[in-house]
Write a structure and sequence with these properties.
- The protein contains nine helices and five strands.
- The relative contact order is 0.16.
- A five-stranded mixed sheet has the order 3-2-1-4-5.
- The longest helix has 17 residues.
- It has 226 residues and is of the alpha/beta class.
Length: 226
């Protein structure tokens, strides 16, 4: 558990109480996210979906590659910003009147800015090249100065396409599986979703891209279900 008093729970109910999952995960593996990739692996085995990539896109995006049933067949790491940079920019630009790009409303009105895209990749280059396991915190991100040179909608669009591209950079470390399962609120943004789909299908034309609920999984609660 991440909240609660394990000793008090034990004294009240006289049953074993396990706690500090995340702390022990960090101590043994060295990274904090994605948390417990064994769970999506277990689901993939149960539902005969291997090999598969499970992509969670929240404030930060992470991926779990399940190439088979053993621990050696498992790879999981953070890929970069999910909604984090987008939300940060929108909040700053609108002075808090908007906090995120609901339904891609802003990004759909913009165009990709190659110069800004390159500045974003430069700012995250060391992390993207670093081999897994690796993880990020939202505090690791900052907006490049170039955002002030362009229109609001174009910046939002570029940040959203950048998110999709950084997720696909995860394939620098493994071969693309055929099945891709998407979880997390970031995929509700049609700009991120379409940018990811279009780029993935160019790399892997036969890839099958599914939302978590399409395979009977919880799109919002995979980590909580552990």
């Amino acid at each position: 558990i991440k909240v609660g008093d394990a000793k008090r729970l034990f004294n009240l109910f006289k049953i074993p109480v396990i706690q500090q999952f995340l702390t022990n995960y960090v101590l043994t593996v060295g990274q904090g996210a994605p948390f417990a990739p064994l769970y999506p692996q277990a689901l993939s085995i149960r539902d005969n979906l291997m090999p598969a990539a499970i992509l969670n896109c929240g404030g930060i995006a992470n991926v779990t590659f399940v190439h088979g049933p053993s621990e050696r067949d498992l790879m999981a790491f953070d890929t970069g910003p999910g909604n984090g940079l987008i939300d940060l920019y929108i909040k700053r630009y609108t002075q808090g009147q908007s906090t995120f790009d609901k339904d891609g409303e802003f990004g759909l009105q913009g165009q990709l800015i190659p110069k800004l895209r390159e500045a974003l990749f430069k700012s995250l280059n060391d992390f993207l090249k670093k081999p897994p396991p690796k993880s990020l915190d939202i505090a690791d991100f900052s907006l490049p100065a170039e955002v002030s040179d362009f229109t609001f909608h174009d910046v939002v669009r570029t940040l959203e396409e950048f998110t999709a591209e950084t997720i696909l950079r995860s394939l620098d470390f493994t071969s693309p599986p055929q099945t891709w399962i998407l979880a997390g609120g970031g995929w509700n943004n049609p700009v991120i979703l379409s940018a990811f789909q279009n780029r993935l299908l160019k790399i892997s034309p036969h890839a099958k891209i599914l939302k978590a609920n399409e395979v009977g999984w919880s799109a919002e609660g995979l980590e909580a279900q552990i």
